[in-house]
Amino acid sequence: MLEEWIRKDIQKKKKSGTYLFYGEDSSRLKKAVLSFAKALCCVEEEDYYCDSCPVCRRIQKGVYADVHVLEDLDIESIREAESSFHESSYEGERKIFILPNIQDLRKESANALLKSIEEPGENTFFLLWTTRKNILSTIRSRSIQVFVPRAGYQELGVSKECYEFFEGNEQDILQCLEEKLDWKEHQSYKNIQKNIKEYMDTKQLSSKVKVYRSLIDFLEVKENISVAEVLWFVEELVNSPCERKDFARLFHYCLLQDRYQGKIEEKLLLSKMLNFPINNKVLFANLFLK
């Protein structure tokens, strides 16, 4: 489906454009955005990409001079990058700017970006991607929106339980299979802070699995432990070395696990709380004490 869309869009021979790729799986979004970037730049294929020419290989490695990834979306970084939006390409015909996690873009940064994405210069393309729907309407309205669905568990060749454990994240699932990780190995909820610190230090999938297993262990026993013990767990969790976006991911993971038996209306209300500057302790206490 994505290949068909890419071919049709490339055949239109657009001189510029802004695209918003959205879906639930960040690994598939990255793959889709890179595929489109390759198709825009590939010198071998006319309406797709070969994935074997020097340009495609360098885009994949992140070393092609005309494909820029803007990881920092604060206003200073956007203003710094703004001059490069209007410069000529270095190597090829087109220049591409990739902005991941566009949902993290604050209003002041968006205002600095709006004119550039609304009227990109000739042969300039902005590729934005997000795993969340709550992005600024000013960004959404100026973009061509492209939905990137998750791969199903049958397609990935794993059980539904494994698929749900990794939230359908294709990259994590494939890496788990390749490394033959024991994702079912028990981890006590009492190790949550230690496991989070290990993951933040290493960024290894094996460490992420430990964090997930500690969360699941807590969700399985929380109805049988005291309120004081629940609040102790919340303290351990929120005092872990995480940024707000990391806490948001942990919050969503707990929220979406079937072991959390709250009503759907309560889940939606709790999810909306992430959009407001609410203390992390209050967020998790509301989730676990419901």
DSSP, total strands: 5
* CATH top level assignment of the largest domain: Alpha Beta
Question: Helical element count?
Answer: 15
* Biggest sheet record: 5 strands, parallel
Strand order, largest beta sheet: 2-3-4-1-5
What percentage of residues falls in helices of 4 or more residues?
A: 40-55%
The Cα radius of gyration reads: 21 Å
Protein name: ATPase
Throw out a few tags for this protein:
290 residues; alpha/beta; Rossmann fold; 2 domains; 15 helices; 9% strand; globular; DNA_Rep/Repair_Clamp_Loader; P-loop_NTPase; ATPase
Description:
This protein is of the alpha/beta class and 290 residues long. The protein folds into two domains: 2-147, P-loop containing nucleotide triphosphate hydrolases (Rossmann fold, 3-Layer(aba) Sandwich), CATH 3.40.50; 185-288, no CATH class. Helix content is 53%, strand content 9%. The chain has 15 helices and five strands. The chain has helices at 2-11, 26-41, 54-61, 75-85, 107-118, 137-140, 153-156, 160-165, 170-179, 192-202, 205-221, 227-238, 244-256, 264-273, 280-288, and strands at 16-22, 67-69, 95-99, 124-130, 144-147. It has a five-stranded parallel β-sheet, with helices on one face. α4 links the parallel β2 and β3. The longest helix has 17 residues, at 205-221. The protein is globular, with a radius of gyration of 21 Å. It starts with a helix and ends with a helix. This is ATPase. InterPro entries: DNA_Rep/Repair_Clamp_Loader, P-loop_NTPase. One of its GO terms (biological process) is DNA-templated DNA replication.
